[in-house]
């Protein structure tokens, strides 16, 4: 995905009101998240996009390492939300990515709460949202997306059993430029809807593969197990524990794993 291809797509093939109206492309950078945050501090307009071919210091939730080799898709988008829309940005972007994968790769992915895009339990994309505050005021938020398009999962023991690439799953080469274009268009439409008061949560709920599954969630070394029953209007997970309690869990620094084929007790 050459710089000229990205620039041409954003200039002539992207029909959006907010997202992608300004963009920067890097052959290599440390982190598109950091680049977008710096651009925000310099006064960039909402919807600015940073795209990179590779990243040397990319990260996922909880500071986890994210493999950022060439041939995949890495980008971050700048938002200037209010307190109402801020918690809905990650679900919104999750819906946009899932829609685009369905359209471009011909696959029907699922979302693992809160922000992984999976196919048959294997991770194909991840989303990271970070915000900057000044007192009680939200200065900006940046949402980063990484999609495994051509990732060689066998090259890294950490990803071999947990991740998959779209090319392998689709059995053909997925057009990264088209995947980016469709994702940004869906983000734009969903964000316009959100600003008009229409939440992405109902559709996000339909993409969630976590619901109805038995899971173990861990927060600060305390684990609870039970049924992932639903999500609320803010995207929080409603967990029905084995002793009947209904816990409301925010994403934060929670880790979640699905439990299959075994009985789970509250821990």
Give the arrangement of secondary structure elements:
Blueprint lengths: L2 H10 L10 E7 L2 H10 L7 E7 L17 E7 L9 H17 L4 E3 L3 E4 L2 E13 L2 E11 L9 H4 L5 H5 L5 H20 L5 H7 L6 E6 L2 E10 L5 E5 L4 E4 L5 E4 L9
Parallel strand pairs: 1-2
Antiparallel strand pairs: 2-3, 3-7, 4-5, 5-6, 6-7, 8-9, 8-12, 9-10, 10-11
Helix pairs in contact: 3-6, 3-7
Describe the structure.
The protein is α+β, with helices and mostly antiparallel strands and 267 residues long. The chain has seven helices and twelve strands. The strands form two sheets. It has a seven-stranded mixed β-sheet, with helices on both faces. Helix 2 (32-41) links the parallel strand 1 and strand 2.
Helical amount: 25-40%
Spans of at least 5 consecutive residues whose pLDDT stays below 50 are 261-267
Structural class: alpha+beta
How can the largest sheet be summarized? 7 strands, mixed
Strands of the largest sheet, in order across it? 1-2-3-7-6-5-4
- Relative strand content: 25-35%
**Strand segment tally:** 12
How many DSSP helices? 7
Radius of gyration: 18 Å
**CA distance, first residue to last residue:** 47 Å
Q: Shape, please? A: globular
H/E element order: HEHEEHEEEEHHHHEEEEE
Determine the mean pLDDT: 89
Keywords:
alpha+beta, five-stranded antiparallel beta sheet, 267 residues, 7 helices, single chain, seven-stranded mixed beta sheet, 27% helix
Short description:
The chain is built from seven helices and twelve strands.
């Amino acid at each position: 995905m050459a710089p000229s291809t990205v620039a041409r797509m954003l200039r002539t093939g992207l029909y959006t009101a907010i997202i992608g109206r300004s963009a920067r492309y890097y052959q290599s950078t440390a982190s598109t998240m950091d680049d977008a945050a710096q651009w925000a501090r310099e006064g960039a307009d909402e919807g600015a996009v940073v795209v990179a071919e590779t990243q040397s210091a990319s990260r996922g939730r909880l500071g986890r390492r994210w493999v950022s080799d060439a041939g995949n898709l890495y980008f971050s988008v700048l938002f200037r939300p209010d307190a109402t829309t801020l918690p809905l940005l990650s679900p919104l972007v999750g819906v946009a990515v899932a829609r685009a994968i369905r359209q471009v790769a011909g696959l029907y992915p699922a979302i693992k709460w809160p922000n992984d895009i999976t196919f048959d339990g294997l991770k194909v994309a991840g989303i990271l949202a970070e915000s900057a505050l000044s007192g009680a005021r939200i200065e900006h938020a940046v949402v980063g997306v990484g999609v495994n398009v051509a990732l060689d999962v066998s090259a890294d023991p950490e990803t071999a059993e947990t991740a998959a690439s779209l090319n392998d799953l689709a059995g053909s080469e997925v057009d990264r430029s088209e995947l980016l274009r469709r994702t940004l268009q869906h983000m734009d439409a969903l964000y316009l809807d959100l600003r008009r008061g229409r939440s992405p949560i109902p559709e996000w709920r339909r993409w969630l593969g976590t619901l109805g599954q038995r899971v173990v969630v861990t927060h600060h070394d305390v684990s609870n197990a039970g049924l992932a029953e639903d999500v609320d209007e803010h995207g929080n997970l409603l967990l029905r524990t084995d002793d009947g309690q209904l816990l409301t869990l925010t994403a934060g620094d929670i880790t979640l794993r699905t439990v299959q084929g075994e009985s789970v007790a509250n821990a």
